Amino acid sequence: RIREHIADKAKLPILIFPEGTCINNTSVMMFKKGSFEVGGTIHPVAIKYDPRFGDAFWNSSKYSVMTYAFNVLTSWAIVCNVWYLPPMVKEEEEDAVHFANRVKAVIAARGGMSVLPWDGGLKRKKVKESFKEEQQKKYCQIV
């Protein structure tokens, strides 16, 4: 459906959040590759919230939706910086994962955030043993 949509030049662009979730405003997590497989031009946008007046992030394991809604509605303001970055296209030799990582790196750099190689689902699921072992092997090589 996305391919059909972007093929029709009369239609407006699609807004996609490729992380699939939000975290604590310090990092950009792994992007889902699907939206980078379909071709077309990506118009990256970096968004970073300023927590000085109110925190827009919801820690669902700590606060209920009602508590979060109360906190947002009673905060002084929800302020964020938004940067519209230059359009990007997939290079010929580039696969969807590398393209997604390149876009993610540009967004993270502009927002002053770090790049994380893992999926946002990790905050709700247990880490796979194979992932732990891979990280342990990398650490052993460093040491």
UniProtKB/TrEMBL annotation:
Start and end residues of each Phospholipid/glycerol acyltransferase domain: 7-48
Locations listed in the record: Endoplasmic reticulum membrane
Single GO term (MF): glycerol-3-phosphate O-acyltransferase activity
GO cellular component, one term: endoplasmic reticulum membrane
Membrane topology: Multi-pass membrane protein
Main localization category: endoplasmic reticulum
GO BP terms in the entry: phospholipid biosynthetic process; triglyceride biosynthetic process
Keyword Cell membrane carried by entry: no
Superkingdom of this protein's organism: Eukaryota
Keywords: Acyltransferase, Endoplasmic reticulum, Lipid biosynthesis, Lipid metabolism, Membrane, Phospholipid biosynthesis, Phospholipid metabolism, Transferase, Transmembrane, Transmembrane helix
Keyword Transcription carried by entry: no
Pathway(s) the chain acts in: Lipid metabolism; Phospholipid metabolism; CDP-diacylglycerol biosynthesis; CDP-diacylglycerol from sn-glycerol 3-phosphate: step 1/3; Glycerolipid metabolism; triacylglycerol biosynthesis
Similarity-based family: Belongs to the 1-acyl-sn-glycerol-3-phosphate acyltransferase family.
Name the record gives this protein: GPAT3 acyltransferase
